[in-house]
Amino acid sequence: MIEMQEVYKKYPNGVTAANGIDVKIKQGEFVYVVGPSGAGKSTFIKMMYREEKPTKGNILINGVNIGRLKGSKVPLLRRNIGVVFQDFKLLPTLTVYENVAFALEVIEEQPKYIKKRVMETLDLVGLKHKARMLPTELSGGEQQRVSIARSIVNSPKVMIADEPTGNLDPDTSWEIMNIFEEINTRGTTIVMATHNKEIVNTIRHRVIAIEGGQIVRDEQRGDYGYEN
Ligand code: ADP
Ligand code: ADP
Predict the structure, then answer these.
(1) 84: exposed, middle or buried (C-beta count within 10 Å: 0-12, 13-18, 19+)?
(2) How many CA atoms lie within 13 Å of 192's alpha carbon, on the beta-carbon side?
(3) Cα 177 to ligand 2 centroid, rounded to whole Å
(4) How far are the Cα atoms of 21, 66, 201 from residue 34, in angstroms, in the given order?
(5) Model pLDDT for residues 57-84, shown as the tens digit of each residue
(6) Main-chain dihedrals φ then ψ at residue 11, nearest 5 degrees
(7) Does the keyword Magnesium apply (predicted)?
(8) What is the tens place of the pLDDT at every residue in 163-202?
(9) Shortest-distance Cα residue to atom 11 of ligand 2
(10) Fewer CB under 10 Å: which end of the chain, C or N?
């Protein structure tokens, strides 16, 4: 369902961050993307939701070549891919409820449906009781749970996460992983770039290691494979 064919990415400054990537990820898989800083993990992930365009090659999401997608079709793609960031990227002036509802409001869902769906999604991440709060009133882990709720509220088939536990303490990181596991169990494909060795080596999933813009290792139930 996600396929890269001979994908290259050269930034305008001349850095090649993807150097011939071929990969297939099936619906329902959970994939960790690991590798040293500067290896090209973020670039790999950003190309999957068209934050970056490949210089060469094809990126197919459910058969659609997103590298060739017209700008006007990008919002439609984004609706089918939930994205979670290391720094949450919540809208600071909106409540928890409003941050999560936003994605459904822009596609003009029925207000009644929006309310039901937002509250059930907040319930899934354990934050129903904090729906009225502002992001600044929440801990980092709670903010990340809001951003997870936002990313899945419109039931995307794919969730992309770039270092989602990078700003969180170990206990909070495990809580976030439990939510990811639940989301994956319900059928959502997850692709997660991470430096969290303990998590990768404990909750085993497919591991793709990237170095110098190339996939150097791809193992089912792999291990982290680096010292930190
Ligand atoms: P990682 O996520 O593994 O740290 P990145 O994909 O962020 O790796 O970066 C890979 C390489 O591409 C690095 O050399 C980085 O400096 C470079 N790079 C990343 N983003 C840009 C950009 N927008 N412009 C120029 N170079 C970039
Ligand atoms: P429950 O019926 O489970 O108690 P509620 O519908 O009362 O859930 O909502 C719980 C929280 O979500 C409340 O804090 C409420 O203010 C907030 N909330 C519900 N709907 C909206 C909305 N449309 N806009 C902003 N906040 C909302």
Answers:
(1) buried
(2) 31
(3) 26
(4) 15, 23, 12
(5) 999 998 899 988 888 998 888 889 999 9
(6) -75, 160
(7) no
(8) 999 999 999 999 999 999 999 999 999 999 999 999 999 9
(9) 131
(10) C
Half-sphere exposure of 169 (CA within 13 A, CB side): 4
**From the CB of residue 108, how many other CB atoms can be counted at a distance below 10 Å?**
8
ipTM over 0.85: no
The residue contributing the CA closest to ligand 1 atom 5 is 40
Q: What is the pTM of this model?
A: 0.90
Bridge partners (DSSP) listed for residue 210: 215
Q: Which residue is associated with the tokens 């169990």?
A: 185
- Is the distance from the beta carbon of residue 100 to the nearest atom of ligand 2 less than 6 Å? no
* Side chain identity, residue 11: Y
* Among 153, 210, 212, 211, CA closest to 183: 153
**Ligand 2, atom 19: closest residue by C-alpha:** 115
Pocket test for ligand 1, best of 9, 15, 32, 228 (most atoms within 8 A of CB): 15
Return d(Cα 84, Cα 190) in angstroms, integer. Answer: 11
Distance 40 CA to ligand 1 centre (A): 6
CA gap 177, 183 in Å, rounded: 10
